[in-house]
Amino acid sequence: MYSCFKDKIGEVLLPGDEFSFETDETISLTDTVKAEKVVCGPGLRRNGDQVLVCKSGVLRHKQPNMFWIDSQQRRYVPAKGESVIGIVTAKSGDVFKVDVGGSEQATLSYLAFEGATKRNRPNVQVGDLVFCQFIIANKDMEPELVCIDSAGRANGMGVFGAGGFLFRVSLGLVRRLLAPRSDIISDLEKLLPCELVVGMNGRVWVKAGSVQQTLVVANLLESCENMTAPQRQALFRRVAQGAL
Amino acid sequence: MKDTPLSNCERDFLLKAIEEKKRVDGRQTYDYRNIKITFGTDYGCCFVDLGKTRVMAQVSCELVTPKENRPNEGIMFFNIELSPMASPAFELGRQSELLVKLNRQLERCLRNSKCIDTESLCVVSGEKVWQIRVDVHMLNHDGNLMDAASVAAITALCHFRRPDVGIQGDEVTLYSVEERDPIPLSIYHMPICVSFAFFQQGTYLLVDPCEREERVMDGLLMIAMNKHREICSIQSSGGIMLLKEQVLRCSKIASVKVSEITELITKALENDKKARKEGGRCGFAESMPRERITALKMDETPVEMTDVMERANDIVQRGEAPVPSPVLPAPGMGQVGEGLQNTWGLEEEEEEDDDDEEEEEEEEEEKVTMMEEEPRGKEEINPFSSFSPCLRMYFLKLF
Hints:
Chain A: Residues 164-212 form the K Homology domain. The complex is a heterodimer of chains A (244) and B (399). Chain A has 244 residues and is α+β, with helices and mostly antiparallel strands. Chain A is 20% helix and 30% strand. Chain A folds into 3 domains: 2-70, CATH 2.40.50.100; 83-160, CATH 2.40.50.140; 165-241, K Homology domain, type 1 (Ribosomal Protein S8, Chain: A, domain 1). In chain A, helix 3 (183-191) packs parallel to helix 5 (229-242). The radius of gyration of chain A is 22 Å and the shape is globular. Chain A starts with a helix and ends with a helix. Chain B is α+β, with helices and mostly antiparallel strands and 399 residues long. Chain B has one domain: GHMP Kinase, N-terminal domain (Ribosomal Protein S5, domain 2, 2-Layer Sandwich), CATH 3.30.230.70. Chain B starts with 7 loop residues before the first helix and ends in a 5-residue tail after the last strand.
């Protein structure tokens, strides 16, 4: 089973490709049979005895037994636990309505901020940006957001301050930026000091020393989408010598 | 579906950047985005790309009765459609303010400027005139739809050819495209619309605003001009107060831009005419860049072609004679036509036939590539009936 997957790691797969597990015809009586468990991530779906690919992309693997399809898309579908950047569109009653780029607007309660009580309301206006995470996000209910974690602390979430620039990228690039030791981020650190907030809904907020630098960072990140690592490093080097 | 709302942070940043004379995509204040013009296979179909804004114009014509107060003039009809694929804010079937504004501006730009000679569209005065209809569809909205629409409309009109009409006395013959070459419309001049966006109560101006800049702008000034520096229409929206010098400055900038764009249009039309004359393939599909991923690309397997003819002749000679037709192998059964030897009802001979077939299969692989050279009727070679182009009929065993 494992071997079927292992062959295709790093290959481009299309929706409809399947991995079917045929049992060997001869079962050895002397060797111990190990129970293999394979964890299917996004893009793979189990269908009885087979595993089907439902998104087009590259098959990736993480030790010990996790497989998923790395795909590129721009439309965001809310999922529980993901941190996103939302735009407050309305204040109604006890909740804020927040646009996260999905099919529906999410709700964010007044009390879901650190240190917020009924008397002490958070200072959020319509049109502000908030960094929050989903506690309810499924296809049957309206999504709900909170700006605190399970212990009641803000942990980096909340309303954004003034300044900075918001722009959109594809979800694949966002995942690359948020990976543990991201090449793009390390290249960017050496280039310019800046503040960067990456939302899993494809929205990125950047704030650098001046307007010019902010625009440079924004354009660099948008163009990193379709570049290979050497091309990107060459571009960053050119910018480092030329512009600044 | 509603469009994504603009956050305060983006608005503040864009205004601050404009104050410092910086644009998000790196352009200068008076720079246009890249304009690309492509034509479809029909005459009168044109696509215009202004950066990411994409617009399609299609011109068509029809013979109708003229208006009563203008019996010698043809009719021009303009229509702009905001397709929902252009932006989530556009809904099909709803008359939005933007749509009305765009339609009105296009009409003023093209109809009131009299850029097309409507009298030449008359066929029989008072009875039949040509009605030219220009449909503009918005395919992608990234700002400045009006400029793209005006360029697309005038280019499509220049590209269009109407069917030829012959008049002999009282008889009017309409020639189809195959009978006589269609003739172009007579166009006096090409009015092109240039948009200026104003910010901070008219202090700062930008040419060709993109979608984000359009959202934060205070007002918009649209000047339609032709390359002879004649202003065809001016419209200011948004209610901002503009000074005389500002308007004059804008018109000077517009004349420069219009001459550049007119040059681009004439060049595109010439290229298209050349391509069509050479008989080369033209059209939308050809002008798209070939960015294909060939998923299945196999190298051609080399085929052994040495002394092909000798081997083929050899095989033909060594082959057995064809089965004569008709033949009655067993009582109650008949075979007509060329084909395999019928083995129904001949159980004793089955084993021999199997052996023969095995031998023939080995020879078969070599012969697959040389099928065309072999003469027809070599039925005993192929146990695979799909290769045999012969007629075979088997009669059922009749009891």
